[in-house]
Design brief:
By secondary structure, the chain is mainly beta. It contains 1 helix and 8 strands; from the N terminus they run E-E-E-E-E-E-E-E-H. About 30% of the residues are buried.
Length: about 170
Amino acid sequence: MKIVGLRAAIFLMVSLTIRILWNVPFSECNLSNANIVNTIFKEVSFEHCKMMGMKFEDCNDFLMDFNFLDCTLNYSSFYGLELKRLRLVDSRLLGADFTDCNLTQAEFIRCNLENAIFENTNLSQADFSTSLNIILDPERNDLYHCQFSLENLPGLLGKYKIKVIS
């Protein structure tokens, strides 16, 4: 069975019975707290979706590939995932957990990352230059060629008690 796309669907706290989602666009869906254990996401796009408390580390990470546009991913967890080239645009990630992730070349475009957790995360070549509320420890994450704006400096230097004044 091929799913062409899902629009304005509500999957609140349900278990997705479709275990392989390949090239499926989700638009205006509420997937908050949905059970996605062993679900495969390949070339899946989420646009204008509410996805609070999602546990993406419970997915089958085989060929995992998705992107987000204007989504609410508050308190979602991506713990330990390989998410190279992940693209998040205009999304809210309050309290999201990226511990032990590989986010090489990820793009966080105009995202709100308030209280997001980055611990032992590979952020090589990631772009945070247009995002807000980033707090992370440069000594506990790989930031090789990572991009930040000047406004992001307080979130990078906070542990040193340095005040950045513009």
